Amino acid sequence: MNTTTPHARPAHLAAVALLVALAYAWLCSALKVDDVDRYWHELGTNRFFWDLGHLWMQPLALLLYRASGGVLGVNHTLEAINVASVALGCAVFFATLREAGHSVLKSAAAVVFVAASFNLMTLGPTAHIKLMVLPALALALHHAMRWERAESAGAPALRDMVASAAWSGLAVNLLVSVLPQTLLLALFMLIRSARRHGVAQGVRRTLPYAVTLAVVGFTLLLAAYATARQTGTTQAADLLSFAVGGLKEKQALQTWVASWKEMPLRFAFSLINNFAFLPSLGTLGRAWMWGWLPDVKPVLPSLLGQAALAALVGGLLLATAVVGAQQALRRAAPGLLSPWAFVLGATAFSYYYNLNDPEHWFQFTMPVALLALQLRRRWLDVWLLGLVMPVLLAVNLLGYGIPKARFALAEREQALQAALGPQGLYVGFAAYPGEPDSSLFNTAGIEHFNIDLVQANDTPGDTQALLARLDARVDAALARGDRVLVFRALDDEDWRGPVMQVAQSGLPRAKLRSHLAARYAISGPVDAGGFPAYELRAR
């Protein structure tokens, strides 16, 4: 490693931020994904929702919207926040790599690897503002690396330790899944200091980080509660119920207990999927293993291609982990502790929570790339930047980013509206499957029966009650002379979420098809807004 620390030139930082911002702005899509409808409503009504899982995220977005005077409108304001966040995060990451001794070219290529990763591309060019946390995460990692270099050289490192803790505290208040990363970094700092200076000195040297993290985190939590009470946006009677209520709501989504046998496979796939666009490998693979896929031959070419990409990326991740663990155990080389803390912290949360949701996995992207480069193995650099980076750039852009950005939403919504008629019945799912889907369409006047929502909220554990509700809605629509179309729920080749969850909860596709076929005439698939659908008619 160089004895003098190189610094990124301001012109280079500006160029990185500008190029990433332009690329992500170009990829912005008219499609609204996941929680975007809720964010639109909150900004549109000048209110926000307090959720401990993402404590300051919506309020900060609202404040930025107010500060801008709303000149961009709700949607473009949210998109601008996300795009700017990715651009700033990438610029900070570039600076981190340069200060770690990597060349301008290698640092720029690593930024492309990060910016082209699938989960960042999924969230970044949208109004889904989860990436607001990215600059704070990048700065926490940046100052942790600075602390590590200074501490190894015997130089003063208190300023960077405190800065890393402060940015980590802000990141935790934006996205609570960051918390394990901050705690592991504190633990690694303590272990390293204790080995060199003894336990008592180790505690004393680590205390500024722990105190700063606690003070910043609790102060922001207290400020959030005070603001929420003052504005009437929470019903919590006290700070404890405000915090615990948010935790309970977040915990209700946790799924690992029900799938503990699959946890290692699910974790490995989700981590690979963080980097690579694998539209059906996980879902079709599970359906085939469980014996729910009638015939794997029609989808075999797609599965093999995705499996090859997964092997390429998975091999890189495995090699990085193995070599990184070996090198970290042999010697405490500067530049390994910080990325390992962030990687293992993200692992602790994501392995436990076990949802393949982009907001729970993009935290791996920067520290994994940094760890791989810090190992300083030429063959690993070639694998990461010479092979995987260009493949991911091509696959993620051509397979996902560009088609989503060019998606003709208005025309497709009109076509779907025409297919269903003015008061037709749409039967399908509400959950976002990760790709453009008819569930994202705004279809005014169209009646919806979302199987996953009814199963989870109205008829939990009672499949017969769910089917009875569905029959009543279908019969009423047919009696009115309206058209009834079923999307995805009867498509034998579509196993994206939440099809698997609905099946595990008592309604596999074969059971739904058998029930509907006994009562109605099923025809199709027909094209409805560019999506396959099955029509139900009275016998």
TrEMBL record:
Keywords: Membrane, Transmembrane, Transmembrane helix. The chain crosses the membrane at residues 80-97, 104-121, 166-191, 206-226, 271-291, 303-324, 336-354, 382-402. The keyword Membrane applies. It comes from the Bacteria. The keyword Transmembrane helix applies. This is Glycosyltransferase RgtA/B/C/D-like domain-containing protein. It comes from Pelomonas nitida. The lineage of its organism: Bacteria, Pseudomonadati, Pseudomonadota, Betaproteobacteria, Burkholderiales.
